[in-house]
Amino acid sequence: MSGTRKTLTFQGVGASPGMVLGRAYTLDRARVSCPTRHLQGGAAEIRDEKDRLRAAFAQSSEQIGKVHARLDPQSDQAQILETHLLILKDPMFVGEALRLIEQESINAEWAVRRQVARFKGIFFDMENDYFRERFSDIEFIGERVLRNLLGGSDALDVEGEEIPEGSIAVARDLSPADLATLLRRREIKGIVTDRGAKTSHVAILARAQGMPCVVGADHISDEIRRGDLMALDGQRGTVTVHPSPEDIEQFQTKLRRRLASEQALHALRELPAQSQDGVRVRLMGNIDHIAQLPSLLAQGAEGVGLFRTELVFLDREALPDEEEHYEIYRAALRALDGRDITFRTLDLGADKMPHSAAAITEREPNPALGLRGLRYCLRHRDIFVTQLKALLRAAVHGPMRILLPMISSLDELREAKACLEEARARLTKEGVEFRGEVPLGAMIETPSAAWSADQLARECDFLSIGTNDLVQYTLAFDRQNREVSYLYLPLHVAIVRALQFAVDAGHTAGIPVSMCGEMAGDPLCTLLLLGLGLDELSMVGPQIPIVKRLIRATRADDARDFIERLKACDGDAERDRFVREEMSRRFGDWLSD
Question: Confidence band (pLDDT; 50, 70, 90) for 338?
Answer without folding.
Answer: very high
